[in-house]
Amino acid sequence: MLKKWIPLLGVAAVCGSLSMPQAAKAEQLTLCWAAWDPANALVELSKDFTTKTGIDMKFEFVPWTSYADRFLNELNSRGKLCDLIIGDSQWLGGAAENGHYVKLNDFFAKEGIKMDDFVPATVVGYSEWPKNTPNYWALPAMGDVVGWTYRKDWFERPELQKEFKAKYGWDLDAPKTYDQLKQIAEFFQKREIDGKTIYGASIYTERGSEGITMGVTNVLYDWGFMYENPKKPYDMNGYVNSPDAVKGLEFYKSLYDCCTPPGSSNVYMVESADAFKSGQVAMQMNFAFTWPGLYKDEKVGGDRIGFFPNPAEKYHFAQLGGQGISVVSYSSKRDAALEYIKWFAQPDVQAKWWQLGGYSCLKSVVDAPSFKSSQPYATAFLESMAIVKDFWAEPSYAELLQAMQKRVHDYVIAGKGTAKEALDDLEKDWTQIFKDDGKI
Amino acid sequence: MTASHETFTDKVADAAIRATPQSVAARVRGLSDRAIAWLFIAPTILLLLAINIFPLFWAVYLSFTNYRANRPNAVVQNVGLGNYSRVLNDPDIWASMQTTAHFVFWTIVLQTLIGFGLAYLIDRKFRGHAFWTTLILIPMMLSPAVVGNFWRFLYEPQIGLFAYAVSFLSGVPTSEIQMLGSVSLAPWAIIIVDTWMWTPYVMLICLAGLRSIPDYIYEAAEVDRASAWRQFWSITVPMALPFIMLAVLFRGIENFKMFDMVNLLTGGGPGSTTEVASIALKRDAFEAWATGRSSAFAIILFVAVFGLANIYVKALNKVKQR
């Protein structure tokens, strides 16, 4: 009897062994993102997805310094490493036009995922290409924006408050305007606090990737810098280099010259956070994703830290950061990847995402009455997300970014030429890039 | 030729044939020795073709197109000499070439002078010279990544030892000594590090040159009552010159393509002050993704280095022949 069954068992074993690798393959998704605190929160969050669906999650996290290089190479070479990718907002145009991302409109319609349920700025910033059209390539995943942290404990010192009021005529508090911000920065610059020399503010000045652009635009928008004529696309003369934009750039340089710590010529997210954590600066410009970590910091966190959105000038904007999550079109596990997006879009998952340290873009989470009191930085985050503006998301964004990095770094840090010359040159560079692209 | 002699020759030839081992090729399926030799070097040649020659020709091809590596779906068009024209007419690229020339010139001058001076001292064979030689060689043995990061901390205005030492000696506050953030000091910060790291290399080559000078020449000069100064200029320098020139050639080529040190220390900044050609090329190729244009830039750099090196080698040969 047993002999009769042996061949059948053998066939079953062979079939099983042949099908097993495929089954295992389908049960694991690789998600690619930058290596930072929110990524750790996502790992934690995704355990629920695995529990619910049985699909394992594998993560490919790359440091910010090589994030763009690594994953844009992967996409351009049509690699199959990433099934899901949380790609930078600026990549959207190129990824959509080159077919790297799966268009999600039909999927959203089928699953009842509505873009109206998300904060509008994040939909435009992280999902739509062309901008302001209902073509969706990603689900808003991680809301982020440039804002500020300050040393609340220093600001609250009575002797400093008294001295500040006597000098400037207003109470030392989180600034609302750039004039106030600069006055505070000047007040703290090279001041001795607790036996240590401290400085006014840490601002973005990094040359290599996108640092100084993210810092400068954060300020330029408020003076009136615009990427193009709202009525005529790619018409940049008089907008990029408007007199107001020139004044904005001059202000950024003056802030760098007067009030940053020595050796601040190449500062971006990590360096800025380090300057704050080491008690070197009174204020710090940085993306909101750093706030949960700073709040938890034993030396500068808790009651010692305060948060405020980008100050206002003629206008009130802040530079958008953050990313959307997309399905890579070269993935062989598209259905499972879409399953993850469907799961991630659920309100309860989004609520947990915020609790774990991610920044949800879902209205039901951020508009909840308890949201503002859920974290000390929640209000500043909400106010900041309401005023966001983003850099070009054109397919040629990398070239556009490099041009701006060069022009503004040359002026702000190296002191080469004038602000007017820097922005005039930038306008010429950008015009040439769009001409090369055939858009002008 | 006599019959007896022929017999003797034949015998010798027969003995030689018997003594010679059977050809390896003959034993391996009738292949000739030449064929076997080709079989052995073929993988290397194929590898060289694949990773050196093919990319070179591919880059030449790309340099005539508008290809962009981040637009795989875009139609690639032939732009003729357009990329070359743009590179050669770009003032920013000329500025980066000028920066490169500045680095190459000063690093070579400093490394040659200090390297030769150290070699001259070490060659005196004083007590403990082996220890000092080893000590001097240490920087050269370190990885450029380690050296770059190490010096970045040393240059740090607030905690760096370099700033502290300069401040101690000059009385200037450390916060004012911003080697990497200052337009005027940043190029020198890189020159100092490169000189610190590669002077030992120049020293080694010069030392080999000095050790190659036969002692009897100095002995003859002593007999002729030539002064030490005269011996130095008439014997030491001319005889060590080919070695010095070789060191200059190696360092010149290396520093023309200097990348790692600049990237780690300043990233080309502040502004574009230290943006050497290799940094500008990397930005164009892998950050702006202008693949066609950057290929043209790379070809121009290659031709420049190749041409200059050839001229220099001819001069070197002339010096050697004197």
Describe the model.
The complex is a heterodimer of chains A (440) and B (322). Chain A has 20 helices and twelve strands. Chain A has 440 residues and is of the alpha/beta class. Chain A folds into two domains: 185 residues, Periplasmic binding protein-like II (D-Maltodextrin-Binding Protein, domain 2), CATH 3.40.190; 219 residues, D-Maltodextrin-Binding Protein, domain 2. In chain A, the strands form three sheets. In chain A, strands 2-1-3-11-4 form a five-stranded mixed β-sheet, with helices on both faces. In chain A, strands 6-7-8-5-9 form a five-stranded mixed β-sheet. Chain A is globular, with a radius of gyration of 24 Å. About 4% of the residues of chain A have low confidence. Chain B has 322 residues and is an all-alpha fold. Chain B folds into two domains: 27 residues; 236 residues, MetI-like (MetI-like fold), CATH 1.10.3720.10. In chain B, 73% of the residues lie in helices and 0% in strands. Chain B is built from 14 helices and no strands. The longest helix of chain B has 32 residues. Chain B is flat. The two termini of chain B are 51 Å apart. The mean pLDDT of chain B is 89. The interface between A and B is medium-sized, with 36 and 31 residues.
